[in-house]
UniProtKB/TrEMBL annotation:
Topological type in the membrane: Multi-pass membrane protein
Gene Ontology terms: cellular component: plasma membrane
Ranges for domain ABC transmembrane type-1: 59-247
Database matches in Gene3D superfamilies: MetI-like
Entry superkingdom: Bacteria
Protein's UniProt keywords contain Transport: yes
Xref: CDD domains: TM_PBP2 (cd06261)
Any Pfam family hit: BPD_transp_1
Source species: Roseococcus suduntuyensis
Name the UniProt record assigns to this protein: NitT/TauT family transport system permease protein
Subcellular location: Cell membrane
């Protein structure tokens, strides 16, 4: 049985979105705005359905790069965070370079990466990984270092080894932080993939949805451009919702962050 709070959580955004789309469609019709300037939602939906065969292929490319980059970022971020938790020297040596990766604009270094790496897919993957890597590393490191000191003393009192402390105490304590970083990095991986595809697309290399957006802009097929943008936004929303569901399923039985707040 769906509760009132759950129904409201889905119903309110849906109504607001419908009203916004209706207002958009009405404004385009009432003002007589041509489609090459601003198409209406109905025309965008029609274009999406008509060009689905080509757009879906580009969508698959973008999704593959995004999830591959997210998987690499999650794996390396978790492993490095564990190393940082085990050795303060390693953390002080490597963490500044992770910060350098984070603060360097990907749009500035993407052309270099695409030039240096022969395989376009691999270059796109590297660009998306750079953007998605830092939130997982930073959040997980904070989580591992935020373990309850009293529980650490208790484990030491019972003679637990360093591996037992890590596996049975620190990693479970850091799980909410890791999952929070994963939710952030999911959207960032998509952004990194799109930015890299834009750079590759300007060089004439066909790839994902960003290339379709560029192609549509050059040909003044603005409805098709908006259709590709809808797919990008929808993909980002789907990734966030999937990772939020994963976080809820893993944390709902024992951590406060998964509390839906229905009892409040």
């Amino acid at each position: 049985m769906i509760s009132r709070a759950q129904a409201l959580r889905w119903f309110a955004p849906a109504v607001l979105g419908f009203l916004a789309l209706a207002a958009w469609e009405w404004a385009v019709w009432a003002q007589g705005i041509p489609s090459y300037i601003l198409p209406g939602p109905v025309q965008i939906a029609q274009t999406l359905a008509r060009d689905w065969d080509s757009l879906s292929v580009s969508l698959l490319v973008t999704v593959q790069i995004t999830f591959a980059a997210l998987a690499v970022a999650a794996s390396l971020g978790l492993l490095l965070a564990i190393l940082f938790a085990q050795s303060r020297v390693i953390e002080m040596s490597l963490f500044p370079y992770a910060v350098v990766l984070q603060v360097t604009p990907i749009v500035a270094i993407a052309p270099l990466i695409i030039i240096w790496v022969d395989d376009v897919r691999a270059a796109l993957l590297i660009c998306a990984w750079i953007v998605a890597f830092f939130p997982i590393l930073s959040n997980t490191t904070v989580g591992l270092q935020s373990t309850d000191r009293n529980l650490l003393d208790l484990f030491r009192l019972y003679g637990a080894s360093r591996w037992q402390v890590l596996w049975r105490l620190k990693l479970p304590s850091a799980m909410p932080y890791f999952l929070a970083g994963l939710r952030i990095s999911g959207g960032l991986a998509l952004i990194g993939a799109i930015v890299a595809e834009f750079v590759a697309g300007t060089g004439g290399t066909a790839s994902g949805l960003a290339y379709r957006i560029l192609e549509s802009g050059y040909q003044l097929q603005i409805p098709r451009m908006f259709a590709a943008l809808v797919l990008v936004s929808g993909t980002g929303i789907a990734i966030f919702m999937a990772l939020s569901l994963l976080s809820h399923l893993l944390l709902r039985r024992w951590h406060e962050s998964a509390d839906t707040g229905e009892h409040r």
